[in-house]
Design a protein that fits this description.
Layout lengths: L20 H11 L2 H14 L3 E2 L3 H8 L3 H12 L26 H11 L4 H12 L11 H8 L3 H11 L12 H12 L3 H9 L1 H6 L2 H8 L3 H12 L22 E5 L5 E5 L8 E2 L1 H8 L7 H38 L1 H6 L9 H8 L3 H8 L3 E4 L2 E4 L7 E3 L5 E3 H13 L9 H10 L6 H10 L5 H4 L4
Parallel strand pairs: 2-5
Antiparallel strand pairs: 1-4, 2-3, 5-6, 7-8
Helix pairs in contact: 1-15, 5-6, 6-8, 9-10, 10-13, 12-13, 14-15, 15-17, 17-18, 20-21
Length: about 450
């Protein structure tokens, strides 16, 4: 007789996190950046008739002199000039501060192209060339590939490219470094010597083989040194002069952090970025009406919309409260940043802020996503304040961001005739109490876009 195993089932208990629609909406709104939340509010104002924006006079009556409003009045009063306007860099519109939109390289070049008297065919080629430039302002794509893409002869592309290469900034649309430098020298009328060295002898310049260059060109070594000095003063990446980040008009600070007269950091929510919302009194009265003559379907619709509007208002208030709490915790954790500057940013992790606020790290992660803080040193994304770091000899910590800033300062102050090698930079940082390897110094230097020491060396 064959025995077959039988399966037995038994009840088991397990925990699962299931998000209710209400909680999901709350977390979604917390995650939104200010511009995205503005779009959501405008959409809800159109679709939900029970939601409205009160008049300014009504807002004052409803809110009165709250503690936050008193802080705002004190802050604005401290920055008001004698003439009645607000003083200080970037303070002119303190409650609704927007960074000015920078002009991009593409916009700058397109404007110049439009000023040229070009037929439609050459104008399209010009736009294709401009659109193919990388962030440094170089045309890396071969002309043969570009010709196939836009279906035009290569000779026509070369003709328009020559025109674009004479646009501002000097050296733009070059195909390599030698051409970039040569274009700049040509526009400066620097003479044939410097142009020839830039086009044909850059590897020898890097090695310092000035005698070989002088012999080849049949000129003096002093003349070569003067030409190299001029070449080193040029900009190797014209595109770096322009901002390639998202338009700054989209950067709206959720928080203002300022030092008061006593040196204490004041954290204020930017209420001006979002309109104050409330439930319509008319629709509230309709929902509360219980007489038999009321249209039941209409009443149910109004009640449903009131519930949706109430949840939205509550979730927006929760977002503002949470973001403000996180900002205050950041300010408490980074006191030296606000008093001494970005060079004194210390290491900070999400877990530390979450522990202070007694919330889950994921809540902090949502609260800092796409949020910006206006500080005495500029507008920074919340993420800027979080980074790993290094322990110093005095027991304090220094963030990797602060280390990069310190490194950039050391290089800018070096003797350009004897630039500091990565090893020497690491040694100097170690002498100041910061233990860091040469390899890490090289990685940070490259991240800052700074050349190696032999490339930074300048000749008298």
């Amino acid at each position: 007789m064959e025995l077959k195993p039988t399966l037995k089932t038994s009840p088991s208990v397990s925990q699962q996190l299931v998000l209710s629609p209400r909680l999901y909406q709350s977390l979604s709104i917390l995650r939104l950046a200010a511009p995205e939340l503005q779009e959501l509010i405008q959409k809800e104002l159109v679709e939900n008739p029970t939601l409205e924006i009160p008049e300014p006079s009504e807002m004052d009556q409803e809110h009165g002199n709250t503690a936050e409003r008193e802080l705002w009045d004190d802050y604005l009063g401290a920055h008001r000039s004698e003439g009645g306007s607000y003083s200080g860099s970037g303070e002119a519109t303190a409650r609704g501060e927007l960074a000015a939109s920078p002009v991009t390289l593409t916009e700058h070049l397109t404007t110049q192209l439009e000023l040229e008297s070009l037929d439609d065919r050459r104008r399209r080629i010009g736009l294709a060339i401009i659109g193919s430039l990388d962030e440094d302002g170089y045309l890396r794509e071969p002309l043969t590939a570009l010709a196939r893409t836009i279906d035009r002869p290569e000779s026509e592309i070369e003709e328009v490219l020559a025109l674009v290469q004479h646009f501002d900034p000097p050296g733009v649309a070059a195909r390599d470094l030698a051409e970039c430098l040569a274009i700049q020298l040509e526009q400066m009328n620097s003479g044939d010597t410097a142009i020839s060295i830039a086009r044909d002898f850059l590897p020898k310049v890097a090695r310092g083989a000035y005698t070989d260059i002088a012999k080849t060109l049949s000129i003096s070594t002093a003349r070569v040194r003067n030409a190299v000095k001029l070449i080193r003063s040029l900009c190797p990446s014209p595109g770096s002069l322009f901002d390639n980040s998202p338009p700054a008009s989209a950067i709206i600070p959720d928080i203002y952090a300022r030092l008061d007269r006593g040196g204490k950091v004041r954290v204020l929510a930017n209420r001006e970025i979002l309109p104050s919302l409330r439930l319509s009194r008319l629709y509230k009265e309709m929902a509360e009406a219980s007489n038999e003559g009321a249209d039941r379907e209409t009443t149910l619709y109004v009640k449903e919309k009131i519930q949706e509007a109430s949840r939205l208002i509550r979730d927006i208030d929760h977002r503002r409260t949470t973001v403000t709490k996180v900002a205050r915790a950041i300010a408490d954790s980074q006191p030296e940043f606000f008093t001494l500057g970005p060079e004194h940013l210390r290491p900070l992790g999400l877990e530390e802020i979450a522990e202070k606020l007694e919330v889950h790290p994921s809540t902090v992660s949502r609260a800092i996503l796409g949020k910006y803080m206006s500080t005495p040193y500029g507008i920074f994304e919340f993420r800027y304040f979080f980074s790993a770091g290094y322990a110093t000899s005095d027991g304090d910590g220094l963030s990797s961001t602060a280390v990069k800033k310190r490194l950039a300062g050391m290089i800018s102050a070096e003797d350009h005739r004897r630039p500091l090698s990565d090893q020497k930079l690491a040694k100097q940082l170690g002498a100041s109490g910061l233990s860091i390897s040469r390899r890490t110094v090289a990685k940070y230097r490259e991240a800052l876009g700074i050349s190696a020491s032999w490339e930074r060396k300048q000749i008298k």
